[in-house]
Design a protein that fits this description.
The structure holds three protein chains of three kinds. By secondary structure, chain A is mostly helical. Chain A has a domain at 1-43 and 226-251. Chain A has helices at residues 2-29, 45-52, 54-86, 90-105, 108-122, 127-152, 155-163, 168-197, 200-205, 213-220, 228-259. Chain A starts with a helix and ends with a helix. Chain B has two domains: 1-37; 49-276, Orthogonal Bundle (MetI-like fold). Chain B has helices at 2-12, 16-37, 48-51, 56-89, 95-103, 110-121, 126-133, 145-170, 173-181, 186-214, 218-224, 231-240, 245-268. Chain B is globular. Helices cover 46% and strands 17% of the residues of chain C. Chain C has helices at 2-31, 47-57, 69-77, 90-98, 118-124, 176-186, 196-209, 220-227, 237-246, 275-286, 288-298, 305-309, 313-317, 325-329, 339-354, and strands spanning 35-41, 60-66, 85-89, 102-103, 134-147, 170-173, 213-217, 232-236, 250-253, 261-269. In chain C, helix 2 links the parallel strand 1 (35-41) and strand 2. Classes of the chains: A mainly alpha, B mainly alpha, C alpha/beta. Chains A and B meet through helix 1, helix 3, helix 4, helix 5 and helix 6 of A and helix 1, helix 2, helix 4, helix 5 and helix 6 of B.
Chain lengths: 260, 279, 355
């Protein structure tokens, strides 16, 4: 019994440590004083100003769109690539996996500047350069998550389907895909997370007049972060919590339904 | 049989789009970095950018980076392993929620979170406020190496928790039950079953934390008061401050090689190829 | 399963479409003739003035921001975005003038140019000999911000920053030139010296000081001082003003040995594609009502005489925004030191950080 309590306490402690800074940011978003260290009274003013600030809203739109598209494309490219890679010979596999790992292992600065150089030479910086950089960043995570799942998938069920007359594509969608779905999902999640929070690479590859949430915040560091940013973070955080809660309720209901 | 072979050949083509992409966006930029790294500003070939790692400032910076990365990796591992174990014991439909719960903090902008940490660790900050309330002395934490370690651990902890958690979830419960039936005590079960089977996850976690930590510099600047020079600082400064892209690229190449060597060493201990698992 | 497939396809399709839309947007804007690409420090303008400019002239403004002049220069050099107008610090303006990267500004055709106080234009001649390339936007000094509750002695010299009594209570600027100017000015040298011996001496003093330094900061020094984390900080005058307003125990002084006076100016880089629009923008910024709006927002020293005359006595007497004349006399503008001296400086700075 004691053991259970210690375990729960430990989990709670770690969660507390992870979320404490976020809680502070939420508190800051209601602070009437711009300073992070002085409390100036409770206010909603930053939330109001946030919704009136076009530049910030634009940055949020850019961030969300960029991240979503980048993650989706990364999943497509990565999943297809994983399928192809699993049937390749050992040597080829290793080569490709090494190449894939490069963006993940390189310092952010280097990847960002490398892509900036590339686009500078042959094209122009704009939305696409940013997107390309984010996709490149995300694909390794997708491959690293989908590959193991693929390797675990039993080929025999797939072969059985083929034998029973299913077309390869149909068999793939009905049998292999559900099996690797967790891998795809986690790959998507990681690619999304990495892209959403990225700053360095976005900074070097973005086009004129564009901003993501990260670059916008970084630019404010010199003169002081506008509390609108805290308000923004709070809203995003609460939104995601809401989605989580809804998803939890849905899955709980599903479990109930299958039982009943 | 022929059908399978035929189909397998077609499958290889699926890698096509990605390969094109990789060539365009990974290989080409890499070649540009190598180009810059091996030339000097007057266009001639030179090894000086690579050999610059021999400069005391640079290898000291690299050393500091390795030290801090190693430290934060160890701490993350110590915190994450028990946590993953506890969480994996109560799995089920909650799995997705648990994972989201630990990824969620990473969706709040990293800079803001570090600044919040600053507030907590400052001399007149929240942590000291709480300590003082209980009559304990103030800790001077901010702008020390300790603060950097705390910050890095905090930032990369989810990356350590998730792979280990996943690996542990995969462990077939039947194995544990069988062992218990055969008379094995908890300690033995842990040592012989859980520990080895969770290793791929541990290795994944170590890689995902250690490698990015080496080139990290923002956290050191904000929480360390910019008093320590890390290899990440050096490379970033060469690109943005000094405008010496050649030196920056040269050092990046050295860093890349270094990282690849350490990864190769780690992968040797994991012949199954399962070490790449993150989920 | 089928539903899921449908959803996935829709998601991908909409994503690609939206993504594509985002792309074409930028292409259109950069091609259209009536635009202006402005590159400025972060949070350094009141956006309503930009909106007013767009309304009155019909020119569409693309506003880019950067953190340090070196960041700016990197992006400018990569040539990816053709900036029409850049606002940056004196030494960077000078560097670009020297490299032939600046275009002359036709100040005669500017209606409101005379709003600028000649005293400051004269200062600017240190880096722009005939006031042909730069138009000052904001200016200020670098000095010591100190907490009167934590510092019980008179603060009038740089030497207090080496006083062991304040171990771990000192904040230095995390910027190469601003850090070095402290020991240099203290020992009576010019902050523009390129003499290797003098610089080495300054570096030695900084290394000595490092154990007393709590942190090297750029922005957070203001918040840290307001919260009482440190006793002394080297800081820009503009930040000092803001800090003093939030915490009445704080005071600011430009030490008697002198310090740096800095100017952030508008300049037209040679990548400019819309020179006329750029000039219109600069002129607009000098108009009294516009300059006043920006002054109220940024609160740094303004070189605009018309705005100054319109201020109330209290603001005019605020010595953090508008220091006394004899203080100004001891101050120097940063000059661009040439690439060789810069390399040497960078090396010294790296060594200090690694120490």
């Amino acid at each position: 019994m004691v053991k259970r309590w210690i375990e729960k306490f430990y989990v709670g402690l770690v969660l507390f440590m992870l979320y404490a800074p976020i809680a502070i940011l939420i508190v800051c978003s209601f602070n009437a004083s711009k300073s992070r260290r002085v409390w100036g009274g409770f206010t909603f003013q930053w939330y109001i100003e946030l919704f009136q600030d076009e530049a910030v809203i634009e940055a949020v739109r850019t961030s969300l769109m960029l991240t979503t598209v980048a993650a989706v494309v990364a999943v497509l490219l990565g999943t297809l690539a994983s399928i192809g890679i699993t049937v390749m010979g050992q040597k080829k596999q290793q080569v490709i996996m090494t190449v894939t790992n490069i963006p993940m292992l390189n310092a952010d600065v280097v990847t960002g500047i490398a892509i900036m150089l590339l686009f500078g030479r042959f094209w122009n910086l704009g939305y696409f350069s940013m997107l390309a950089a984010h996709i490149t960043l995300g694909v390794p995570y997708v491959i690293l998550n989908v590959m193991p799942k693929l390797q675990q998938t039993s080929v025999s069920t797939y072969e059985a389907a083929l034998d029973l007359g299913a077309s390869p594509v149909y068999a793939f969608i009905k049998i292999v895909l559900p099996d690797i779905m967790p891998g795809i999902f986690s790959g998507f999640l990681l690619a999304f997370t990495i892209s959403l929070d990225d700053f360095v690479i976005t900074y070097f590859t973005k086009g004129a007049g564009m901003n993501t949430i990260s670059t916008m915040i970084y630019q404010q560091v010199r003169r002081g972060i506008n509390p609108k940013m805290y308000a923004l973070s709070t809203i995003l955080f609460l939104l995601i919590l809401l989605v989580l809660w809804v998803a939890n309720r849905i899955s709980a209901r599903q479990v109930q339904e299958t039982r009943g | 049989m022929r059908k399978l072979w035929h189909w397998m050949n077609k499958r290889k083509l699926l890698t096509g789009p990605y390969l094109l992409w990789a060539v365009g966006f990974i290989i080409l930029p890499l070649l540009m970095i190598i180009y810059y790294g091996l030339t000097s500003s007057d266009g001639g070939f030179t090894l000086e950018n690579l050999l610059a790692i021999g400069d005391p400032i640079h290898y000291k910076a690299l050393g500091q980076s390795l030290l801090i990365a190693f430290g934060s990796t160890c701490i993350s591992l110590i915190i994450a392993y028990p946590l993953a174990y506890i969480l994996s014991k109560n799995q089920g439909s909650k799995k997705g929620i648990i994972i989201m719960l630990f990824i969620l903090p990473m969706w709040i902008n990293f800079l803001l979170r570090v600044l919040a940490l600053q507030m907590i660790l400052a001399n007149t900050g929240i942590l000291n406020g709480i300590l003082n309330f209980f009559g304990l002395p103030s800790q001077h934490l901010l702008y020390t190496r300790t603060a950097i370690l705390i910050g890095m651990t905090y930032d990369y902890l989810p990356f350590m928790i998730l792979p280990i958690y996943n690996a542990m979830c995969k462990i077939d419960r039947d194995l544990i039950h069988a062992a218990a039936d055969l008379g094995a005590g908890n300690k033995l079960i842990f040592r012989k079953i859980i520990l080895p089977l969770s290793m791929p996850g541990v290795i994944s976690g170590i890689i995902m934390v250690f490698v990015p930590s080496i080139s990290e510099f923002a956290i050191a600047d904000i929480l360390g008061g910019s008093k320590i020079l890390l290899i990440g600082n050096v490379i970033e400064q060469e690109f943005s401050l000094t405008n010496n892209w050649h030196l920056g690229s040269g050092l990046s190449i050295v860093l890349m090689v270094f990282i690849f060597i350490s990864m190769a060493v780690m992968n040797k201990n994991d012949a199954e190829g399962e070490g790449q698992m993150i989920w | 399963m089928k539903k899921f497939k449908v959803y996935l396809c829709l998601l991908v399709a909409s994503g690609v479409l939206l993504g594509g839309c985002g792309g074409s947007e930028t292409e259109n804007v950069t091609d259209s003739g009536n635009t202006l690409v402005v590159f400025n420090y972060g949070d350094y303008i009141d956006f309503t003035t930009i909106e007013m400019f767009e309304k009155e002239t019909g020119i569409r403004v693309e506003y880019e921001q950067y953190v340090t002049p070196e960041d700016m220069y990197t992006k400018y050099q990569s040539g990816n975005i053709p900036y029409d107008l850049i606002c940056t610090s004196d030494y960077m303006v000078e560097k670009m003038i020297r490299n032939g990267e600046a275009k002359k500004i036709d100040t005669d055709s500017m209606e409101y140019y005379d709003n600028l106080d000649p005293t400051y234009l004269e200062f600017c001649q240190a880096f722009d000999a005939e006031n042909e390339y730069a138009v000052p936007y904001f200016w200020g000094t670098v000095g010591i911000l100190y907490n009167t509750e934590l510092v019980d002695e008179e603060v009038d010299s740089w030497d207090i920053l080496w006083n062991e009594k304040y171990e771990n209570q000192i904040i230095m600027e995390n910027s190469m030139r601003d850090a070095f100017e402290v020991p240099l000015k203290w020992k009576g040298k010019s902050l523009n010296t390129t003499d290797e011996e003098e610089l080495r001496e300054a570096q030695a003093m900084l290394m000595d000081q490092k154990k007393l330094v709590m942190a090297y900061m750029v922005d957070e020094s203001r918040d840290a001082m307001i919260a009482g984390d440190a006793a002394l900080a080297v800081i820009y005058s503009g930040d000092a003003t803001a800090a003093m307003e939030a915490n009445e125990n704080l005071d600011y002084v430009v030490p008697e040995e002198g310090s740096n006076i800095w100017f952030d100016c508008w300049m037209i880089p040679d990548s400019c594609k819309h020179q006329e629009n750029a000039q219109k923008f600069i002129d607009f910024m000098n108009r009294e009502d516009i300059a006043r709006i920006n002054f109220d927002y940024v609160y740094y020293g303004t070189p605009n005489k018309a705005v100054y005359d319109g201020l109330d006595e209290e603001t005019k007497e605020d010595y953090t925004i508008f220091p006394e004349d004899d203080t100004l006399e001891k101050c120097e503008v940063y000059k661009y030191l040439g690439s060789e001296a810069e390399s040497f400086y960078n090396q010294l700075w790296k060594e200090l950080k690694a120490y």
